[in-house]
Amino acid sequence: MATVLAIETSCDETAVAIVKNRQVCSSIVASQISVHQQYGGVVPEVASRQHLETINQAIAASLEQSHIDWDQIDGIAATCAPGLVGALLVGLTAAKTLAMVHNKAFLGVHHLEGHIYATYLSEPTLDPPFLSLLVSGGHTSLIYVKDCGIYETLGETRDDAAGEAFDKVARLLKLGYPGGPIIDKLAQTGNPQAFALPEGKISLPGGGIHPYDGSFSGLKTAVLRLVQQLEKDGSQIPVADVAASFQETVARSLTKRAIACARDYGLDTIAVGGGVAANSGLRKHLQAAATEHNLRVLFPPLKFCTDNAAMIGCTATDHLSRGHTSPLTLGVESRLALTQVMKLYQH
What we know:
Elements: E1 3-8, E2 13-20, E3 23-31, H1 33-37, H2 44-66, E4 75-81, H3 85-101, E5 105-110, H4 111-122, E6 130-135, E7 140-147, E8 150-156, H5 162-172, H6 179-187, H7 217-232, H8 239-264, E9 269-273, H9 280-292, E10 296-298, H10 310-321
Parallel strand pairs: 1-4, 4-5, 6-9, 9-10
Antiparallel strand pairs: 1-2, 2-3, 6-7, 7-8
């Protein structure tokens, strides 16, 4: 069983964790939300500086919390793609330095593979094949998980990711940042049937609708037009009803595609990952539909839905146990397809 110290700095959380196989020994997450709130979104340069200021304390805190010494650690891992280049460089440089100083194996980890592995932290007996629904601020994809490092993308959004749509609609409604948790909370008191909003279907060139791809740009525009019309009519905007209707539409469209995809490919398990996996509307819809079709749906604990280093460590322990390590010349990439994960490793 491999033990890995992992670092995650792809966006606005400075996270460090120590993971032994699929067991979390420590997990430190220093969020920057309060810093970026004044800008209404993540500012890359500010994020990088915050990581620089926080990374050493986070590493020290993770070691202290785990009661594990350096001689018990087999490898050092860090997220290397995709993400904000400056932010990724902070974590990757720290990991390479630790690997050299302590003579440990070094592993660069794909952020989205980390979100897939988040489910393993609460479901240690889970094994491929299964379907992963990845829903976050930057990604919305249906992934056929075949084995460690072996993935096939079956469906994705053609424009805005689900989490991005939540942030943009929250901004429209003047609710602040980040949008997901605020809309989710407001939706609890609203009427999800108050407004009919489009699900964002993708047409196929030869006719018909793509079964697994989706779009959230049109939904976001529909909310904008709805708000503009209400303002033009002099009506008070029923913010909770708009939030509930929007959330209902997103949850319904994601659920339809995920269930159809799992059934078409004969997969009996759907594992959900990413920040939007914390959304109560999506959890409710997907759980109900999965039960109806005799499928199993797995959600990570809320603390492992958003960015964290425990999921990166869990990924790295699996790769390391298979003899996969990364060269110290490995760089960071702002974009890298999940299907190209194995290019990060020497094996």
